[in-house]
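RECORD TYPE: inverse folding
INPUT: structure tokens
STRUCTURE:
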């Protein structure tokens, strides 16, 4: 194993996973980050500094500039969705595209109190309680209190089911967010058996992966769309680019010329970087 020199003169074994973590934080898709890390691992020599390794990684990422910008647009677009209600609606749409029957904002009686559940997703005999949390500020992670609340709801709903107060037996609980859980929240969720999807969480198969696989991009990924235009599209039942293309230009609520411009931008999104993303 090649030894690299740290900033303080100490040496350590070269760890390609550190490059992967650095590049994904910079917006690179997991596959791109792993490819760059593998290439660097084949090039480096004994005694190279960690600063030089970092510079190699950043330089290599320039060859994937378009896909990195695309990922940033998607992440920003998820933050720009608007209210938590719209994010919940969007997540339910994604689940439906993956074959789930989804109901939302359901009030269910637990053993102690009634609870409003963001979503109930059913597929192949499995029932999933879905908790959704949206952040308009990307630096804001989903806190421990959300996982604690989800576990408390789950326990009370299960207890209510045993008492015959509801007929909902959940096979699992899933928290979906457009950022990530805090480390404290993540440790707790894993400990009590709550699954969670967020941005690149789990690593390499997070929310963005499921969006990209079926091209379920929110309309807010478009750089030129205004908040007013977004809200008009929402009013007409359009949350994704697929829906925009399908409905344009008749039921969007926007002027025809503006719709044409958004459609042109949409086609650029659909054709951008798919092989790498």
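DESIGNED SEQUENCE:
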């Amino acid at each position: 194993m090649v030894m690299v020199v740290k900033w303080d003169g100490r040496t350590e074994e070269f760890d390609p996973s550190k490059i992967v973590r650095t590049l994904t934080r910079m917006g690179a898709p997991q596959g791109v980050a792993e490819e760059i890390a593998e290439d660097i691992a084949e090039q480096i020599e004994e005694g190279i500094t960690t600063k030089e390794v970092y510079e190699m990684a950043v330089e290599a990422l320039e060859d994937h500039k378009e896909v990195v910008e695309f990922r940033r647009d998607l992440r920003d677009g998820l933050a720009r969705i608007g209210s938590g209600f719209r994010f919940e609606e969007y997540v339910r749409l994604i689940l439906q595209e993956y074959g789930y029957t989804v109901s939302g904002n359901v009030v269910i009686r637990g053993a102690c109190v009634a609870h409003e559940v963001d979503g109930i997703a059913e597929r192949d005999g499995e029932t999933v309680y879905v908790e959704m949390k949206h952040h308009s500020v990307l630096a804001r992670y989903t806190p421990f209190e959300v996982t604690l609340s989800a576990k408390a709801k789950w326990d009370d709903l299960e207890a209510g089911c045993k008492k015959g107060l509801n007929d909902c037996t959940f096979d699992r609980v899933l928290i979906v967010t457009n950022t990530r859980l805090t480390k404290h929240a993540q440790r707790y969720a894993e400990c009590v058996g709550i699954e969670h999807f967020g941005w690149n969480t789990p690593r390499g198969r997070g929310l963005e992966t499921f969006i990209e696989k079926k091209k379920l991009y929110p309309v807010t990924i478009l750089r030129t769309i205004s908040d007013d235009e977004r809200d008009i599209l929402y009013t007409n039942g359009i949350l994704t680019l697929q829906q925009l293309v399908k409905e344009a230009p008749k039921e969007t609520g926007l002027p025809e010329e503006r719709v044409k411009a958004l459609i042109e931008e949409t086609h650029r999104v659909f054709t951008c970087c798919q092989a790498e993303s």
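NOTES: The chain has eleven helices and seven strands.
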